[in-house]
Amino acid sequence: MASFKSEPFLWIHLSGIVAFPIFLVITWFGLSTSDRLPTLGLELLLMVVIGILPIFLMQWSRPFEIFSLLVLAMKPDKISYQQRQILSLFKMPKQRILSAATAVAMVGILYGLYQLPPLTMIELPILSQLLDQFHILGLFIACAAFVGANLFLQVPISVVGVLLSNEQEFVKITPYPTEKITQDFTLAGFQVDHIIAIDPVSPQK
C-alpha cells in the first residue's frame, strides 16, 4: 500500500495556501474604505464574527472533507479504506489545537491589516474617491474576502497536521465509518462516484 502522504487530495488542498495572500490583499482593499478610528472596534468585531468564527467552528466540529475538487465531492461510500483512515486523522484532538491557534493568528493578522495604509493614502485618487463613497460595499468585500482567507489557511494547516502524522501509527488507525462521514464532515459540491485523474484507488470495504 502506498504511503498515505502521497494522497493527491492532501497536496491539492495544501496547495490552496497560495490563495491565502490573494484574499488578504482583497481584504485590505475592502478595508481601505474604513473610517478606521471611529469604527475600528465595531469593524474588527464584525470581521472576526463573519470572517473567522464560521470557518473555525467548521474545522472544530465538522472539518472540511478534503476528498473533493471545485464543485465535486466523492460520495462517502466511494472513499477508499486508506482515505477513511486519513479522515480519522482530521478528527484527532491535535487538529482542533491547530484550528484554534490558526484562528488566534488570524485575529492578529486582521489587526495588522488595519495598521497598513489605506488606499486613500496611495496615489490612486479616482479609485480612492470611489471607495470612500461606498464604505459599506468595501466592508462587505473585506468580510467576504476574509472568509476566503480563513478557509484557505485553515484547511491547508489542517492538512499539514495530517502530513506530520507518523507513518507507522497511521497503519493502526481505524478508518472513519462511512455512514458517519456526512454527519461529521463538511462536504462541499455535488457528490459523485469518482473524480477523474484524482482518485485512482478503488474503494475498499
From TrEMBL:
Domain of life: Bacteria
Coiled coil: none
Transmembrane segments: 9-31, 37-57, 97-114, 134-164
InterPro entries with a match to the protein in the record: LCTMP-like
Keywords: Membrane, Transmembrane, Transmembrane helix
UniProt xrefs under NCBIfam families: colliding_TM
The name this protein goes by in its record: Low-complexity tail membrane protein
Organism encoding this protein: Pseudanabaena yagii GIHE-NHR1
